[in-house]
Amino acid sequence: MFLLRGLLALVAGFTVVPFAFSAPPSAVDELKAVVVLFRHGDRSPLSSWPNDIYYGNSTLWPDGYGQLNNLGKERHYRLGQWFRERYDGFLPKRYNHNDIYIQSTDVDRTLMSAASNLAGLYPPLDDQVWNSAVNWQAIPIHTTPEELDVILATEFPCPKHDRLLEELYNSTQFQNWNEELASVFEELSPLTGYEDLSVHSFSGLFSTITIYRGFNWTLPEWTDTYWPLIKFWATRKFQWPTYTPDLARLRSGPFFDYLLSYFKSVKGNVSLPPRHVKGPRHQDLLLPNSNAPKFLMLSAHDTTLSDRTNALGVYPDAVPEFSSTVIWEVRNGTQGFYVNMFFKNSTGFSNLTLPGCEFNCLIDDYVKLVEPICIGVDQWKEECNN
């Protein structure tokens, strides 16, 4: 327990940047475009520890594991209402497909989260009301199979990233961490039922315990005792896939290549180039290839948010909670087009400043700073397999 106390002290001393609330968009500089990337809402567990008394009880999870629950639907509905309040006037109240484009990973909980969000953002108006008893309208949500999606999902194989990540996990640094935590693993093993624990084990524990805490369920005492440690290492785990510039580029490069193309399209008022990704079944990845919509909504996962924020050097130092959102706003002011970034979750709304730039980052400077971690899809596929 001496080691545990020492590690807890380390966790307690870790600095977390507090949230700073931001005012609504300024009326001085013209808002030109918005990109929102959010995590899905609350879900049932994906996995749990062997000794967990709740996980195997199917009556607790009637919709199955990994599925969006009612709290998750409500949370995203409220987030959609928040988008409406913040961007009302910029984004017309009446839905029009030219204004907004919605892309989701091909997973039930992300598709349902996007639909719930849109219900809050776009309640039907006038002739859009198709049933007086249903305050909802159908809005298209685009998706592509996970194994073909290189923009939002991370299931498309990249052998080079896998190799570099495995080298990181086998490094002296990781060996030292596991050795330092050996006595903790020895204590946790009989409590959890896990035989082989490592620094990678904490993220799964964090996820499931967080869900149970949301229901105020009674948990074993060890979940409180080790919670700061679990939370600390779970937070670190979400940084490792983008731990180095090479890892970041291979993990998130196609996303940033697409994002910067979108920014350039907004600035130049030109068409986005077609971005088709041919997979083994010759299906195309659907992305906008006409004039850029003013609002781009992307529904994804905690790993998606942590990968992108860590790659940019603005990781909020916490596992992205359900419905956490990264926002990019493009404005046109006296000095030209610039980009603002924000992070929103249930506890606050904070500014994100790209290292090397000011908060109001001129779009050309933003592009130059992000380009080193950008990679086009074709080049990405070639490098991944080299």
TrEMBL record:
Q: Which organism is it from?
A: Hypothenemus hampei
TM ranges: none
What does it catalyze?
Answer: a phosphate monoester + H2O = an alcohol + phosphate
Q: Does the keyword Glycoprotein apply?
A: yes
Give the EC number(s) under which this enzyme is classified: 3.1.3.2
What is the protein name given in its UniProt record? acid phosphatase
Segment forming the signal sequence: 1-22
Recorded hits in Pfam families, A to Z, give: His_Phos_2
Keywords linked to the UniProt accession: Disulfide bond, Glycoprotein, Hydrolase, Signal
Superkingdom of source: Eukaryota
Q: Which GO terms describe its molecular function?
A: acid phosphatase activity
State the similarity comment: Belongs to the histidine acid phosphatase family.
Question: Entry's PANTHER family?
Answer: ACID PHOSPHATASE-RELATED (PTHR11567), PROSTATIC ACID PHOSPHATASE (PTHR11567:SF211)
